[in-house]
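Whiteboard transcription, Tuesday session. T.W. wrote the C-alpha coordinates on the left side:
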Protein backbone atom coordinates (compact mmCIF):
# COMPACT_ATOMS: atom_id res chain seq x y z
CA UNK A 1 0.00 0.00 0.00
CA UNK A 2 1.16 3.48 -0.91
CA UNK A 3 -0.50 6.60 0.54
CA UNK A 4 0.04 9.93 -1.17
CA UNK A 5 -1.71 13.28 -1.50
CA UNK A 6 -3.81 13.87 -4.60
CA UNK A 7 -2.36 16.76 -6.60
CA UNK A 8 -4.24 16.48 -9.90
CA UNK A 9 -7.89 16.35 -10.86
CA UNK A 10 -7.10 13.11 -12.67
CA UNK A 11 -6.15 11.48 -9.37
CA UNK A 12 -9.37 12.69 -7.73
CA UNK A 13 -11.48 11.47 -10.64
CA UNK A 14 -9.70 8.09 -10.73
CA UNK A 15 -10.79 7.54 -7.11
CA UNK A 16 -14.42 8.25 -8.05
CA UNK A 17 -15.57 4.70 -7.28
CA UNK A 18 -14.78 5.42 -3.62
CA UNK A 19 -17.07 8.47 -3.34
CA UNK A 20 -20.75 8.59 -2.42
CA UNK A 21 -21.64 10.03 -5.84
CA UNK A 22 -19.85 10.48 -9.17
CA UNK A 23 -17.22 13.24 -8.99
CA UNK A 24 -17.33 16.29 -11.21
CA UNK A 25 -14.17 17.62 -12.78
CA UNK A 26 -14.96 21.25 -11.90
CA UNK A 27 -15.52 20.35 -8.24
CA UNK A 28 -12.29 18.34 -8.17
CA UNK A 29 -10.40 21.34 -9.54
CA UNK A 30 -11.99 23.65 -6.94
CA UNK A 31 -11.11 21.18 -4.18
CA UNK A 32 -7.45 21.16 -5.19
CA UNK A 33 -7.33 24.94 -5.57
CA UNK A 34 -8.82 25.63 -2.12
CA UNK A 35 -6.30 26.37 0.63
CA UNK A 36 -6.43 23.84 3.43
CA UNK A 37 -8.17 21.09 1.45
CA UNK A 38 -6.35 17.77 1.35
CA UNK A 39 -7.06 14.30 0.03
CA UNK A 40 -4.77 11.36 0.70
CA UNK A 41 -5.31 8.32 -1.50
CA UNK A 42 -4.21 4.78 -0.63
CA UNK A 43 -3.09 2.75 -3.63
CA UNK A 44 -2.95 -1.04 -3.71
CA UNK A 45 -1.28 -2.52 -6.79
CA UNK A 46 -1.37 0.96 -8.35
CA UNK A 47 -5.16 1.41 -8.04
CA UNK A 48 -7.04 3.66 -5.59
CA UNK A 49 -8.24 1.49 -2.70
CA UNK A 50 -9.24 4.20 -0.22
CA UNK A 51 -9.05 7.87 0.60
CA UNK A 52 -9.33 10.32 3.45
CA UNK A 53 -10.12 13.98 2.97
CA UNK A 54 -9.38 16.74 5.42
CA UNK A 55 -10.12 20.42 5.66
CA UNK A 56 -8.15 22.86 7.78
CA UNK A 57 -10.41 25.11 9.83
CA UNK A 58 -9.03 28.38 11.17
CA UNK A 59 -10.51 30.61 13.85
CA UNK A 60 -9.05 33.83 15.33
CA UNK A 61 -9.05 32.58 18.94
CA UNK A 62 -8.33 28.90 18.36
CA UNK A 63 -5.81 28.60 15.58
CA UNK A 64 -6.07 25.78 13.07
CA UNK A 65 -7.63 22.36 13.46
CA UNK A 66 -8.12 19.58 10.93
CA UNK A 67 -11.57 18.23 10.17
CA UNK A 68 -11.48 14.66 8.88
CA UNK A 69 -14.20 15.22 6.31
CA UNK A 70 -14.55 11.74 4.83
CA UNK A 71 -12.91 8.33 4.93
CA UNK A 72 -13.68 5.59 2.43
CA UNK A 73 -12.14 2.21 1.69
CA UNK A 74 -13.18 0.04 -1.25
CA UNK A 75 -15.20 -2.92 -0.01
CA UNK A 76 -12.70 -5.41 -1.47
CA UNK A 77 -9.91 -3.85 0.62
CA UNK A 78 -11.64 -3.42 3.98
CA UNK A 79 -10.37 -4.86 7.26
CA UNK A 80 -6.76 -4.70 6.08
CA UNK A 81 -5.69 -1.56 7.97
CA UNK A 82 -6.14 0.88 5.09
CA UNK A 83 -8.66 3.08 6.94
CA UNK A 84 -6.42 3.19 10.00
CA UNK A 85 -3.34 4.00 7.90
CA UNK A 86 -5.19 6.79 6.09
CA UNK A 87 -6.46 8.27 9.37
CA UNK A 88 -2.97 8.15 10.87
CA UNK A 89 -1.52 9.76 7.73
CA UNK A 90 -4.03 12.61 7.92
CA UNK A 91 -3.28 13.11 11.63
CA UNK A 92 0.45 13.25 10.83
CA UNK A 93 -0.21 15.81 8.10
CA UNK A 94 -2.34 17.86 10.50
CA UNK A 95 0.52 17.93 13.01
CA UNK A 96 2.96 18.87 10.25
CA UNK A 97 0.69 21.78 9.28
CA UNK A 98 0.54 23.01 12.88
CA UNK A 99 -3.05 22.00 13.62
CA UNK A 100 -3.77 21.86 17.35
CA UNK A 101 -6.15 18.91 16.91
CA UNK A 102 -8.15 16.83 14.45
CA UNK A 103 -11.82 15.91 14.71
CA UNK A 104 -14.48 13.94 12.86
CA UNK A 105 -18.24 13.69 13.08
CA UNK A 106 -19.54 10.14 12.87
CA UNK A 107 -22.91 8.50 13.43
CA UNK A 108 -23.05 6.61 16.72
CA UNK A 109 -24.26 3.42 14.99
CA UNK A 110 -21.37 3.36 12.51
CA UNK A 111 -19.37 0.70 14.37
CA UNK A 112 -16.67 0.20 11.67
CA UNK A 113 -15.88 3.94 11.54
CA UNK A 114 -15.86 4.27 15.32
CA UNK A 115 -13.53 1.27 15.64
CA UNK A 116 -11.18 2.67 12.99
CA UNK A 117 -10.97 6.12 14.59
CA UNK A 118 -10.59 4.74 18.11
CA UNK A 119 -7.81 2.42 16.94
CA UNK A 120 -5.81 5.52 16.00
CA UNK A 121 -6.22 7.16 19.41
CA UNK A 122 -9.41 9.20 18.90
CA UNK A 123 -11.69 9.52 21.91
CA UNK A 124 -15.33 10.48 22.31
CA UNK A 125 -15.75 14.18 22.96
CA UNK A 126 -19.34 13.86 24.11
CA UNK A 127 -22.67 13.92 22.34
CA UNK A 128 -23.63 16.71 19.96
CA UNK A 129 -26.27 17.44 17.37
CA UNK A 130 -25.40 18.24 13.79
CA UNK A 131 -27.81 20.59 12.05
CA UNK A 132 -27.79 21.30 8.32
CA UNK A 133 -29.30 23.84 5.95
CA UNK A 134 -30.37 22.65 2.50
CA UNK A 135 -29.85 24.88 -0.51
CA UNK A 136 -31.63 24.94 -3.85
CA UNK A 137 -28.18 25.41 -5.38
CA UNK A 138 -27.10 21.76 -4.99
CA UNK A 139 -26.28 21.27 -8.67
CA UNK A 140 -24.19 24.44 -8.86
CA UNK A 141 -22.20 24.02 -5.66
CA UNK A 142 -22.25 20.37 -4.70
CA UNK A 143 -24.37 17.66 -3.18
CA UNK A 144 -25.07 19.58 0.00
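and on the right, the sequence the group agreed on:
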Amino acid sequence: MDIRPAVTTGELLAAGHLYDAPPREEWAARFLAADGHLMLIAYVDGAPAGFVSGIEMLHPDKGTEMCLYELSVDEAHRRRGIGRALTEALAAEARKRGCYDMWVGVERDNAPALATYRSTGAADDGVFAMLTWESDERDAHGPG
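Someone added at the bottom: The chain has five helices and five strands.
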